[in-house]
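Page 37, top half.
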Amino acid sequence: MHEKPYRSVVKSISWRTLGTLDTIIISYFVTGNLVMAASIGSIEVITKMVLYYFHERAWNRSSFGRVKPPANDYQI
């Protein structure tokens, strides 16, 4: 079984939403400026979603760490 590309898109969006909130919070603590923190978060959300999508698709093509199911010896 393999994953379809739209699954990677949905996973990218959900992960980046969480990641962006984290980035905004950290940026706010560092800068003390909510506008600057939101700006940083809005830039990184786009770039990291694109990077994650291609990263996910590359891993989906890799067989590293996957195990093939055993062949079914019983045929009907």
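Page 37, bottom half:
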Amino acid sequence: MFVLELSYTAPLDRVDALMKNHVGWLDAQYAAGVFIASGRKNPRDGGVILAVGDDRAAIERLAAGDPFAVYGVCAYRITEFIATKTSDALAPYRQQ
């Protein structure tokens, strides 16, 4: 499992101009079963995405395709972790 932390590197007006494209990209990853949660940080200086997968390089390539990354309005920090304990709702994602 991966935590993708986005930090905005551009003013919010540039971020907001790309929001529709970013949300479309998010929707595609939810449909593909890769993302299981996401949202903006508070204060609004970026966001967080919870992703499932076994291949860090694939997650890095996916993040590089985010319109926010493509147009240089955010930087990604990707943390991989082993989800050995979860809520019952996330049981399919538990790892040994």
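Margin note: The chain has a mean pLDDT of 97.
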